[in-house]
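User: Look at the shape:
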Amino acid sequence: MAGLGQARSAISIVNALPLGVGAAVGIHWTARSIARLAPGDRRTRAPAIEPRTSATPLVRTAARAALERYPPAQTGRRVRLRVRSSIPVARGLKSSSAVASSVVLAVARAGGHDPVPLEVARLVAEVGRSTGVSATGALDDALAGVRPGCVVTDNRHDAELRRIELGRDLGVALWIPPHTHPRSPTVRRRFAREPGLARRAVDLALAGDWAGAMDANSTLVEHAMGYRYGRLRAAVASAGAVASGVSGLGPALAVVGERTRLPALLRHLPRQGRRRTLGLFLEDAPPEGAP
């Protein structure tokens, strides 16, 4: 039996580091995993992961956690797992959450289970905390990758607070600089310097003003991480962007706008690094392909 797991990258609306409340929306950049059950014994219970470069502590921990939570109906079975993702790592685009979510879904489905999105996201948050990938567990990032719309979560209690529907005509233009960000536990203290701005971002998200929340959050993250995106964000706003902001800890910058305007918005972004446009994850769709 085989199981397909698919989860999406996401962009930040509110970073959860300051107050433990985060918000994010998925984008159509996908991590995929396929899990197959094969005969095994007690000595071969550890999942076999391909390619070898994908056998990171995060993937191994996610696979083991999924096997423990969603064991196969047949005993004596070993999981063979293939993981594929082209989402840039450590750029603020939630690659870790997307990969871990795809692994959990694939392993669970191979064993005959079909967990709901919040259940998957909670397990992935546990994995993120246990491996040190995320200081908060990033429930918002994981949930945004498996559930459509903008999700607002309390990462301290692994609870979903609300879901905000965005216009179906919106998409995102991304600028992805070549450098990477440090792990969130190492920079957490930087975000305690401006509690008022952090609270404003959270309050706006809880009120449903995702664009205002994204703007306030970006100002906070830019100050904390030392980015100088003010002029760039002003330029895309003048070109018709609905909202823009640093995603995660950066350095990626996400510019949300009407899909018809995305090519024009992309032209305002620097040529150093990568630039691309994508759709937002705004409605459920069946997985692409089959195992």
